[in-house]
């Protein structure tokens, strides 16, 4: 692998998942692979899991990391081609990215969508400009529309759960919309749908209130169900996530959707479903205490698996650079 921006950059998905699971069993098994190489991690917004799990993964491979909170510590970047930079932007990405390409062997970047301009967000303009100008492999730590390291960890979590319990049937996986107090990106939901579809091992449904349909480019292949109770019947895994409207771009739609909060009584119709969420989560808004603190929650295991997902991706890129 060279760049890692989506599942489309993965040649053999099942191999990548297996490699992540193998790293979990033996974290230091490729501890010299990254020696003499350096990973730059740029953040345009906050992170707990992505930042630390990727640093741990890099350390396990002998890869040095430098983290730069570019939104707080760097010059304000300009991304518009031909911009007359007489406003508040100080440095063009055309100038900054090649410099970073001289300092690092791999560049990892977290951006976020504006949620105001769909075309601009869905063009992935920010991360694509780093790809264009850095001259080194670029890893998405979450972009405007996708969160591939999260999705790989999600597949690892389900695959491992199934392996350890000798699952014999195709699991029923349900991505359910959840309430939230503010508009959130569609990244995690888009990406989860894209990766589960590519995985091809699940019977996959998405449930949400009408108006929260995601981009079909990512969901195509999933069954869309507007009745959450119906969607949850016999589910083996429930992935909980809020997202703002894609069609009324970035909007939180009017109406009381608080009944979409997942609680223990909704699990009764499932196949004792395991519940996943990428975190951070707003307790008792997005997901109830009783689920998060109960035996069906996989959220901590899932966040732990972020290390092995990142390690598998970095190892694959380092192999390419050898
Ligand atoms: N799930 C996730 O990406 O968490 P952070 O925003 O804390 O990195």
Walk me through what this model shows.
The chain is of the alpha/beta class and 322 residues long. The chain has two domains: 7-146 and 304-321, Aspartate/ornithine carbamoyltransferase (Rossmann fold, 3-Layer(aba) Sandwich); 149-303, Aspartate/ornithine carbamoyltransferase (Rossmann fold, 3-Layer(aba) Sandwich). 39% of the residues lie in helices and 14% in strands. The strands form three sheets. It has a five-stranded parallel sheet with strand order 9-8-7-10-11. A four-stranded parallel sheet has the order 2-1-5-6, sandwiched between helices. α1 (13-25) packs across α7, α1 (13-25) packs across α13 and α2 (49-60) packs across α13. The termini are close together. The structure holds phosphoric acid mono(formamide)ester.
- Sketch the topology as an H/E string, one letter per element: HEHEHEEHEHHEHEHEHEHEHEHH
Unreliable stretches: none
Dominant shape: globular
Query: What is the number of E strands?
Result: 11
CATH architecture of the largest domain: 3-Layer(aba) Sandwich
The number of helices is 13
Strand line-up in the sheet with most strands: 9-8-7-10-11
Structural class of the secondary elements?
Answer: alpha/beta
CATH class of the largest domain: Alpha Beta
Share of residues in strands: 5-15%
Assign the CATH topology of the largest domain: Rossmann fold
Query: How many domains make up the 3D coordinates?
Result: 2
CATH superfamily of the largest domain: Aspartate/ornithine carbamoyltransferase
Distinct bound molecules: phosphoric acid mono(formamide)ester
Helix content: 25-40%
Rg of Cα set: 20 Å
Q: What distance separates the N and C termini?
A: 12 Å
Overall pLDDT metric: 97
């Amino acid at each position: 692998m060279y760049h890692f921006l989506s599942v489309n950059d993965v040649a053999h998905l099942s191999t990548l998942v297996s490699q992540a699971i193998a790293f979990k069993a033996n974290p230091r098994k490729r501890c010299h692979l990254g020696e003499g190489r350096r990973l730059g991690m740029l953040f345009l917004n906050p992170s707990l899991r992505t930042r630390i799990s990727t640093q741990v993964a890099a350390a396990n491979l002998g890869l040095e990391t430098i983290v730069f909170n570019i939104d707080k510590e760097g010059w304000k970047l300009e991304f518009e081609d031909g911009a007359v930079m007489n406003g508040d932007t100080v440095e063009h990405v055309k100038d900054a990215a090649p410099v970073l390409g001289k300092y690092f062997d791999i560049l990892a970047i977290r951006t976020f969508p504006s949620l105001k301009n769909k075309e601009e967000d869905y063009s992935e303009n920010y991360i694509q400009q780093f790809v264009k100008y850095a001259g080194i492999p670029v890893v998405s730590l979450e972009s405007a529309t996708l969160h591939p390291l999260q999705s790989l960890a999600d597949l690892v979590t389900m695959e491992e759960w199934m392996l350890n319990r000798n699952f014999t049937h195709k699991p029923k996986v349900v991505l359910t919309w959840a309430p939230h107090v503010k508009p959130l990106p569609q990244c995690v939901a888009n990406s989860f749908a894209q990766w589960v579809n590519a995985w091809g091992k699940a019977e996959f449904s998405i449930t949400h209130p009408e108006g929260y349909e995601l981009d079909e480019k990512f969901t195509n292949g999933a069954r869309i169900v507007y009745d959450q109770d119906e969607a949850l019947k016999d589910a083996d895994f429930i992935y909980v996530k809020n997202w703002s409207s894609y069609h009324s771009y970035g909007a939180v739609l009017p109406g009381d959707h608080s009944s979409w909060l997942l609680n223990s009584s909704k699990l009764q119709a499932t196949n004792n479903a395991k519940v996943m969420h990428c975190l951070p989560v707003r307790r008792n808004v997005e997901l109830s205490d009783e689920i998060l603190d109960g035996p069906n929650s996989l959220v901590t295991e899932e966040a732990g698996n972020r290390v092995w997902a990142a390690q598998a991706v970095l190892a694959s890129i380092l192999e390419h650079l050898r």
